[in-house]
Structure formats: C-alpha cells, structure tokens
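Follow-up to my post from last week.
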Amino acid sequence: MKIEITVQNMFFIFVIGTAGSGKSALTAAFEKWLATSELGVTVVNLDPGVEDPPYTSDVDIREYVDYGQIMHEFGLGPNGALVAALDMAISHIDDLKEEIIDYGRNYVLIDCPGQMELFAYRNSGPLLISSLKGNNPALSLYLLDANIVRTPPGYLSSMLLGISINIRFSLPQIGILSKSDLLSEEKVNEIISWSTQPFILQDALDITAEGMLKEYSSSILRVLEDIGSGSSVLPISSRQMEGMEILYGEIQRILAGGENYQTYE
Amino acid sequence: MKIEITVQNMFFIFVIGTAGSGKSALTAAFEKWLATSELGVTVVNLDPGVEDPPYTSDVDIREYVDYGQIMHEFGLGPNGALVAALDMAISHIDDLKEEIIDYGRNYVLIDCPGQMELFAYRNSGPLLISSLKGNNPALSLYLLDANIVRTPPGYLSSMLLGISINIRFSLPQIGILSKSDLLSEEKVNEIISWSTQPFILQDALDITAEGMLKEYSSSILRVLEDIGSGSSVLPISSRQMEGMEILYGEIQRILAGGENYQTYE
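User reply:
Got it. Predicted complex:
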C-alpha cells in the first residue's frame, strides 16, 4: 500500500554558498545518491540566471521568470537582471510551491542562486526561502569553498560568512567542505579538526595571524564554538560521490527532530 | 614650491561592499568632495565588468583586461568572466601601481568590483589589494546597505559579513551606513546607537529575534563590541553629499596613525 505523502512529510534542503562553491554539482550528486537509495527527491532550481545546470530540475524558477528577457526589456546588466528576476519570482511562490507539493516526494532539494550576495543580502532571498518551506522542516547546506578554507584565516572568514547567512535565512545549517577532492586527506582532517576542536584553530591562528585577526581571533572563535557546538564540517566530493551517506545521516538527525533541530527552533 | 609626493605620502582607500550597496556612487561623491577641498585624489576603477561608472577614472583595470572579450573568447558567463578577468589582472598589478604612483596624488580612491563575493572570497581579490597598497597606509570603507541594516538581524548579519571581509583583506575598516537618505533621521540615529551601544541592539534582538539568533545574539554581539570598540558606523548620502567631512576626519584619524590604526597594526 502506497503511503500518501502529505506536505508534513516534506523536508526542504536549501543548497547555499558563494559563487563557484559547488552548489549545482552537489545538488546533482546528492539527487543521484538519494534516487539510488530509493528515496524520493524533487529537485528545484532557484537560479534564474543558470544556463545549463548539471541536473534535470523537476521545478524550475526559469519557467516563471525569463532572465534574458528581463535583461533585454529593462536594459539591465547581469546583476540587475538577477535581482529583478528574484523580485519578480516572489509573485510565483505559490505556483512553485504547488508544483513541489504535487510531486509528493519526501525530499525537496533546492539549488539556490549562484551569487549568494544577490540572494542572501537582499530582501527577496530570505522571503523566497521562508515562503517556499512554509511550516515544513527545512535546513540549509552551507558550502565552504575548499580553495578558501584551506588556511586558518580563510576558514574563519568563511565560517563567519556562514553565521551571517544563517541569520539571514534562519535555518538549521550544515557546514559542508565542498570539493574536498581538491585537498589532501591530511588537509581535510586538519580542517575537520578546526571545526570540532577550536583550540587547534586558535593555535594555528596564533602562529600565522596578523593585525586585527591576531587580536580578536579568540573572541571570534568563541562565537564559532558557541554556535557550532563542536559539530564537524562534512567533507563532500560531488565529483567522486564521497560523503553522501554521512550527509544524509546528518540531515536525518536534524530534520527528524534531533537535538540540533531543537536548538534552532 | 611644489612638494614632491613620494609613495610614502599616498593613502589607499578601498571602497567595498555587496552589489548595489552604493560603492561607485560613494567613490564619485567622495572624489568630488576631496577635489572641492583641494585635496589631490587619484580615482581607480577595479571592476572589469562595470559599464558606465558615475566618475571619470584616472586608472582603470578595463584598460588591461577586456571583460567582454574574455566572456566571448572563453565562452564564459558573467560570473566566470569576472573571475577570469580578476585573475588576469594580477599580472598587470605593477602597471596599475605605476600609473597610480605617476599621478603622485595623496589619496588613492579605489572602487572595488561590484560583486563582493567574486572579489573577497577568491584568492585574486586579497592579492590585488595587498599588492596595490604595498607598504602604503591603507584602509577600506565597508558599505552597509541601508535596506538591509534597518532591522536588528539585518544589521547583525551585515556587521558579521564585514568582519569576515575584514579578515580577508586585513585592512583597517570603516563601517559606512550607505544611502542614508533612504532612511528617516530617527532610523539613522537608531542604527548609529546599535554600533556605539551594543546593549541597545541586544534589547532590540531580545524582543524580535527568533531561533539561533535569539540563542546566540549575546555571543555575536560580544565580537562586534570587541572589534568595533564602540566606533560608530558613519551615515553617508552620496546623493545629497552628506557625511563627507566626517568620513574624511575618520580617514585622517586612521591613516595618520590614530589609535584605530594602531589597534589594527
């Protein structure tokens, strides 16, 4: 007997991160993993400006707003057109949501616009996210770019950016070390140790940091420690399909009402 | 007698902020103010993708890298082309620097690329900034978007983003409340009070915040308090040419070796 999926059984997973951090690749890889594991997933593209994402979207913002036409019609550049497209998309939230509900699958995997600053630091982005998820359990996967977080200052600035975005979207957030195949295993383990044992990061900063960072690193680290509570960043390689099972476990833990979810509610 | 300006007398002022925060408008307005005040200023455009900035640049990255051609030649989208253009610009830093030195003016006002995430959170941006300034005194003007910082959570997330960027660029940083003419005088004063007296912000967050922000706001505020040390964000209206004199005074205080500069050194 088929169990009817009501909207209450739908879990929304928003994939966020700076341009080039690997959002679309992770969306494609994680969809593949979920499907192979026979878990129902609806893939949503929320980027009006994307040309050729590496997955086939079930629901697509481009069916409602035409980025190219907006650019042409209003004489806007790439940034302006993206901002306008996202503003216009707000009037189509009900349609997007209805499409998602009609699919009736448990997991809704949402690839957010490529340029985070045009999405997170404007009013339309947070509004799109909160309206789409409604009262359903939801979380975000925040992608940390392997090229930036390999150094202690780069890691710290990326984590602070993550907290800033966390405030904008008000979602439980999992930190993902994206494109981990670009790093050596040793480096990956070092970055994980920074996230779980901040004193290791403090030691590394004491040696390398200069200027304001040297002076304030312990104060900044305390915030990361408070908010992260020792939870690890998850190394993921979309290219090599590595880390998917652990990611799924972490998502389950949060969405099923694990302790992390409680602290965010 | 004309005093010869050596490179030691040059002060580099980098204008940074998210797309649409008003960087180019502030560059234009502040150049005008400096020129009217008979202070020598060289204006540098560092955005390869800008089409028609509201000022006449003395030195321009577009003379060295051709964004349109890069887009066409390599078949890149707007983001990819900007990233490639900034990477290519690195090989022209010496030329840019030489041009700036040849102008021989005291103030060098540098309008940074419109999309901060493609500049700050890649390796080329921090490298461009540190190479351009060399050993000269330098600082950044970090523009806070009036539309975002009007609410306590928006203010907090923007300030955290500012700290994250501060770590990337390692420059003394002045927080600017940009486009202040969009806000009422009352709202401007409220935002200033958040920056100088964090307990007022804490009270506001206690009332309105939810989720992780409610739980961790005091921890986050402590960092802002430590790093900001009670220094005020400066309200600026480029459109109405308001706030320029106070901005100039603050820049002087930092570049001339005032206490703020010492704490960042």
